[in-house]
Structure formats: C-alpha cells, structure tokens
Design brief:
It is globular and about 75 Å long. With 367 residues, it is an alpha/beta fold. It has a 7-stranded parallel sheet with strand order 3-2-4-1-5-6-7, sandwiched between helices. It has helices at residues 31-34, 43-51, 55-66, 70-84, 103-116, 145-148, 164-180, 196-201, 224-229, 243-258, 282-299, 301-328, 330-344, 350-366; strands at residues 91-97, 121-126, 153-156, 185-191, 206-211, 232-235, 270-273. The chain contains 14 helices and 7 strands. Bound molecules: guanosine-5'-diphosphate. Guanosine-5'-diphosphate is lined by residues 97, 99-105, 141, 236-237, 239, 275-277.
C-alpha cells in the first residue's frame, strides 16, 4: 500500500520499507489458545458452580460482589440470594491483633490442622487500610503459603471499598458464598485498629484476640473495648525463652478479665499461650472454640446472636441506602453546598437545614 509514496529507486529517500519477519519457529503457536476470552456466566452457572464447591467460580462470584459496577452488583445480589439458604453452616471465627502479633502465622497453623481433620477453611480479611489508599496492612506480605496451596482452603484478601462499612458488607456477602460452597470454618482476620475489629466482631460467632507478652505494660496498650469483645485471648510467640513471660502475661489477662462484666452468652473467656512456631496451644484454642459453639448452641445464644447480627444488617442497610439515595439526589447535588456555606456563615442551624433538605428530598420523590 506504500508503493505509491515510496520511490524505491531513490537511494536518498528517507522512506524505506523494512522487511517484516517470518513467524519465528521458537514462538509457541499454542500460547494464544490459552488466552481466550473468559466466558461470562449466568446467575445459574454461578450458583451451580458455588454449590458444587468449584473454587474458580466461587472466586469469580466474589469478584462480582467486590465490583462496584451496577451490572455486576445485580448479578451478585441474585447469586447471594440463591446461595443464602445453603449458607450458615459454618463456624465463623474472628481473629484480631496488632500487625506483627502473628495472625497469619496462627491462622496458617490452625487452618492446616483443620483441613487435615477434613474441614474446609475459608480465610477472609477486613483490612481497614483498604478503605483509603487501596494499600493494605494485611495483604502486602507473602502470607499463609502452605494454606494457600491447600485444596481445602480458600484465602481471599480484603475487599477494597469506598468505606469500611462497604468492606464489611462485602465481607458478609462473601461469607455467605463461601458457606454455600461448603466451607465449614470461616476465619475473618482483621488488624486491631479502630473500627475494623468492631465490624469483624459483628459478623462472627467467636472472637479471638491475639496478644504478645510485652514487658510489663501488656494490658495498657489495648483498648478495654477489644478485651470486652474477646471470647478468648491468646498470647502468641510463647515458645522458648518467652514461655515464662507469656505465662505471666496470661495470668495478668486472666485477672483483668475477671473484672469485666459477664458476657451475655454466659461464656467465661479463657486466656491461652500459644506459638505458631512450635504449634503449641493451637489445639487448645480450637477446642475452646468448639466448647463455645456447643455451649451456646445448647443455650440458644448461638442462634440468637446470629439473628441479632442479621437484624443489625437490616437496619444498617436501610440507613446506608437512604444516605446513598439522598446524596445522589438532585436536592443534595444542588443545595448541599449552599447549605454548607450558610452553616459556616452562621446563617442557619445545621439541624434545621438538615431537616429542610430531607423534607425537600422526600417531597421531590412525590413529584
Ligand atoms: P500478622 O501481621 O499479625 O499477620 O503477623 P505474622 O503472622 O505475619 O507474623 C509476624 C512475625 O512474627 C513474622 O516474622 C512471623 O514469622 C513471626 N511469628 C509469628 N508467629 C510466631 C511465633 O509463634 N513465634 C515467634 N517467635 N515468631 C512468630
């Protein structure tokens, strides 16, 4: 096609045709056969795949749940709804603690123990940093290498979402999918920072707090609220020469726990020492989880707690949906900035203007 513009007989022409290469022999022609377009799945395909325990389809369904695209959300919600009646049959275990305490190491040892006993273990994470930067406190390191290659384990990093509330919602939905796929132990890992452990606590049956035997001040560093939420505390890295110090720390924690009001479940939290390195204490912790489940199922608290958690989701979802719709409305878009200026200029009370905007918003729905 360049023949008209290129004068082949002019040696001074800047325009030249460079010969193309033949297909090289060493390029694997089959390579591109593998890069096929991923077939899109119907809701039924997803549900069937999940219920049959297909991990690839489970992972794809989770990606849909995590997606913020409206069309993905529509499919995800349908899939979740269909999976719901197949969910709920797991022990949901929350594990929290500061970065470096050994959460992933303990989960790896516990997870391997459980899969070797025939359990299917899903490990999900709630990472508070995913709400802001898209970066991650939990996910950056190579984590749980043994468990991640275990066919009976499924590890998924924290969903990132606009808000921690969004992360929590997605995690709850992912729990449903994992349970429908046959995972009978679901571990929710979170760092002991701010609100994330409150959220993790609100979606699990049993909440384990990991601690270190820091010299002297081990009780000062943690907030009372976290200790109050814990169903068990384990002092990790308690092997070798740390053994004695960890035992001492455990005694301190036991004494401190006695001063707390009794839990609604009637459960008395225990304090353990453990080591992900020597695998000491992990069996005892799991036995404690089983004891808790047995006791609370007998008393009915187990089911009551799950019901309470579900009802909380209902009211949280209503609040969130109302907020989203309001902020997405023309009223908010056209009047909120003016209202903010008026408040900053002390022209109007924030309460009154809030009421006015909400009234206007509901009025606009009628029109
Ligand atoms: P996470 O940030 O809480 O998930 O902690 P990691 O599991 O990544 O562990 C943090 C560091 O502590 C790593 O270097 C681990 O090898 C180490 N570690 C974890 N568990 C133990 C343990 O039981 N004993 C000792 N000595 N070190 C441990």
């Amino acid at each position: 096609m360049y023949d008209q513009v290129i004068d082949k007989n002019n040696p001074n022409s800047a325009l030249k045709v460079t010969q193309g290469t033949e297909n090289r022999q060493d390029v694997n022609k089959d390579l591109f056969k593998h890069i096929k377009k991923v077939k899109s799945l119907s809701v039924e395909d997803y549900v069937e795949g999940i219920l049959s325990g297909n991990r690839t389809i489970l992972a794809r369904a989770i990606t849909l749940v995590e997606s913020n695209l409206y069309k993905h959300q529509l499919i995800a919600q349908e899939v979740i709804e269909k999976c719901l009646k197949h969910s709920g049959n797991s022990i949901r275990l929350g594990i929290t603690g500061v970065p470096g305490v050994g959460k992933s190491s303990v989960i790896e040892v516990l997870g391997k123990k459980l899969t070797s006993e025939g359990h299917k273990v899903a490990v999900l994470a709630i990472d508070p940093s995913s709400e802001r930067s898209g970066g991650s406190i939990l996910g950056d390191k190579t984590r749980m290498e043994l468990l991640s290659s275990d066919p009976n384990a499924f590890i998924r990093p924290s969903p990132s979402a606009g808000s921690l509330g969004g992360v929590a919602r997605k995690t709850r939905e992912i729990i449903i999918l994992c349970e429908a796929a046959g995972f009978d132990v679901v571990i929710i890992e979170t760092v002991g920072v701010g609100q994330s452990e409150v959220l993790a606590h609100s979606m699990v049956d049993f909440f384990l707090l990991l601690q270190l035997a820091n010299a002297g001040d081990e009780l000062q560093g943690i907030k009372r609220g976290i200790m109050e939420m814990a169903d068990a505390i384990a002092i990790n890295k308690a092997e070798g020469k740390e053994k004695e110090r960890s035992e001492l720390a455990a005694i301190n924690y036991r004494n401190a726990l006695h001063l707390f009001p009794p839990q609604e479940s009637g459960w008395q939290p225990k304090v353990f020492t453990c080591s992900a390195y020597s695998k000491m204490g992990i069996d005892d912790i799991w036995q404690n989880v089983l004891d808790y489940v047995e006791m609370t199922k007998k008393s009915g608290y187990f089911y009551k707690n799950r019901n309470t958690q579900n009802l909380r989701i209902l009211s949280e979802s209503i609040s969130q949906t109302l907020l989203d719709r309001f902020y997405d409305s023309d009223v908010a878009k056209t009047k909120l900035d003016i209202a903010k200026d008026d408040i900053l200029d002390n022209k109007v009370s924030a309460y009154i203007i809030a009421q006015k905007l909400i009234d206007e918003y509901f009025q606009s729905l009628k029109g």
